[in-house]
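User
Here is a favour to ask of a fellow structure person. I am asking you to supply a protein in sequence and structure-token form. Please set it down just below, with no commentary around it:

Assistant
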Amino acid sequence: MFRKVLIANRGEIAVRIARTLQPMGIRAVAVYSDPDRAEPHVACADEAYRLPGSTAAETYLCGERIIEIAQTCRADAVHPGYGFLAENADFAEACAEAGLVFIGPSPEVLRAVGDKVNAKETFAAAGVPVVPGCTPKEASNPRRLARAADRIGYPVLVKAAAGGGGKGMRVVERKEDLADAAAACAREAKAAFGDDRIFLETYIERPRHVEFQIFADHHGNVVHLFERECSVQRRHQKIVEESPAPALTPALRQAMAEAAVTAARTIGYTNAGTVEFMVDESGAFYFLEVNARLQVEHPVTEMV
């Protein structure tokens, strides 16, 4: 059992983590930037430490400073919450090297799921349905890219290999628009993620977006807590999240849940995570991505 946990975040999620730790007899340690000095996550913590600096990069994204504070206050573990450093494999690795438990997946898992193409190939080999597409190697050459799009069939979706949050994505309906869309997607991906690799997938029109909440321990046990549907979106950003998903039959729900558990077990996942799928109009489902962290929308599952 931990004695003290540093919460490397702010706002609502930091408050929720603190309120979970304290009834268990675990001291909650907050960090804060100057503008957040009077925020609730600071007030409800047992200890709080200032992060000097004026930008996110200097404060909540400064893993080195956060680890220094964790060592100074003699914390046993670091909980990253969501956002900021939650899916940063280098930070998770640095925590381990500093003798701190990173409450989240291992650095190896974070790297594995952070590369969407490698994750897709890994899960396909394990029998998890994936969307047909091409690799970044094919997409790196204009002629290969065009041939891949012809093979897949229009419309296609151009995606950033290291993407997330709806960034680095373009729908292409005509061959004439492919080169410009690919170049724009690569530029956006480079600016947002520092990685300009792109790939193609079949564009599934009017899909349902369904995600399964999973939990896994360090002994290979994986469970799911059923699904949340987030099909109502704007610019690939979720607006409404609901559970149970109204469009799933019992058989489809069971098949998707088993696929989510298989995906998590295949990569040796630990802690909380979300496996996301798309469901087309025929009822076929396809792996989309793994969110290797506690997800923003997890209270929807808690309410079911």
